[in-house]
Write a structure and sequence with these properties.
The complex is a heterodimer of chains A (300) and B (86).
Chain A: H1 2-54, H2 57-83, H3 85-95, H4 99-102, H5 118-121, H6 124-132, H7 151-159, H8 200-206, H9 240-243, H10 293-299
Helix pairs in contact in A: 2-3
Chain B: H1 2-50, H2 56-81
The chains are: A mainly alpha (300), B mainly alpha (86).
């Protein structure tokens, strides 16, 4: 009886031990699984946000790519239309060396074209001028072949972009003033603002500066002050009474008139400056106030 | 009686270690998953935060449309003022 009781107790202890181990480990596993479940819930939340935020990205990026594709096709088509396929490939390769191998997307045949070395012959500025010049010989077909690939011809072609006067290679080119006494007469005088309009004799007598007044200001047909009222701006007060008018006569406006010999008696150059004592050591501060000897001689 | 004792010995010497070994393996595997899940959750949160800028793609799309429209207008003007190659 005692033996049976002993073996039974051992069995019970063994079973309890096994059950205790099961409980311990299973509870630990359950705790870990709950932690995992919590983490996965957080992951699912963030993944849901990612899905929601990235949902429109595909459509937007597709739209952007379509727009960019359209822009690329437009620019490539314009370049090929204006420069020709061969030169277009050369231009692209000149700006981006090696790009000619990839060719133009809209022109698959461009990959087979050997890119002309445009970038070595012309600077970018010359190319721009050549393309912008409507009659530029670079852009025109030449019987001597494509001038873009001819170094000598290319130089001549670039020079021919300038006005005709330069083509004969003169020793000295006339200056091309825009303003000043040598400026070209663009508008014939149509009005007079004081004094007389100098004629050729007066201009010759007084010098070229006097001829400046002969150019007039703004002609009537372009809205000058003597233009018809409908061409003038919204300022009707500025009529002739404000702008003034000449008498049309050569008589002086005052009784005594203007004495032109007054300038000959000018003493500004001979008597200018402070009165310095004779024999005194000149001070450096008076150096600029003392009349120059040349001024005194010219005045005397 | 002897068989009973043998059964107890087997139960303690064999079954119990095997049960402990297997349960410990399951527990270790479960514990090893937790850091991975936490890392995934952290990366997912960072990814979600990075995608906050995705809304700016709408502005980018609008800007691209305007830019391409401007390029198209510019190209159209060039097409008018420049001669064709041939």
């Amino acid at each position: 009886m005692l033996a049976v009781t002993a073996v039974g107790v051992v069995t019970i202890l063994a079973v309890v031990l096994i059950v205790a181990a099961l409980v311990f480990y299973l509870v630990s596993v359950i705790v870990q699984l709950r932690t995992i479940t919590t983490g996965l819930d957080e992951v699912i939340t963030h993944v849901g946000e990612i899905v929601a935020k990235s949902a429109p990205v595909n459509d937007v990026v597709t739209g952007i790519n379509e727009q960019l594709d359209a822009g690329v096709e437009l620019l490539e088509g314009l370049l090929v239309k204006k420069a020709g396929l061969t030169d277009a490939v050369g231009l692209v390769d000149g700006l981006y060396p090696g790009a000619a191998a990839a060719g133009l997307r809209s022109f698959p045949e461009s990959t087979t074209i050997k890119a002309p070395r445009i970038g070595e012959v012309y600077t970018r500025g010359t190319l721009t001028l050549a393309r912008l010049g409507r009659e530029a010989p670079i852009a025109a077909a030449s019987p001597n072949g494509p001038v873009l690939r001819n170094v000598t011809g290319g130089s001549l072609a670039a020079r021919q972009l300038y006005p005709e006067a330069r083509q004969s290679r003169p020793d000295s080119l006339a200056r091309s003033p825009v303003i000043g006494t040598g400026a070209p007469v663009r508008y014939q005088p149509s009005e007079q603002r004081g004094g007389t309009t100098p004629d050729a004799a007066e201009t010759r007598e007084k010098g070229p500066w006097a001829g400046t007044a002969a150019e007039g200001i703004v002609p009537a047909e372009l809205g000058g002050s003597d233009a018809p009222r409908e061409l003038l701006g919204e300022d009707p007060e500025l009529g002739s009474s404000v702008l003034g008018a000449t008498t049309g006569a050569d008589e002086p406006a005052t009784e005594t008139g203007v004495d032109p010999s007054g300038g000959d008696r000018a003493d500004a150059t001979s008597d200018a400056g402070p009165d310095l004592p004779q024999g005194a050591e000149p001070d450096l501060k008076d150096a600029a106030a003392t009349p120059r000897p040349a001024d005194g001689e010219s005045a005397g | 009686m002897i068989l009973w004792w043998l059964g107890n010995i087997v139960l303690i010497a064999v079954v119990f270690p095997v049960v402990v070994y297997l349960l410990r393996g399951v527990l270790d595997a479960a514990r090893s998953i937790v850091p991975s899940v936490e890392e995934i959750a952290r990366v997912a949160a960072a990814g979600s935060k990075d995608l906050d800028a995705a809304a700016l793609l709408l502005t980018t799309q609008d800007q691209v449309e305007k830019t391409v429209a401007g390029v198209a207008n510019y190209g159209g003007s060039l097409d008018v003022i420049l001669d064709d190659a041939r």
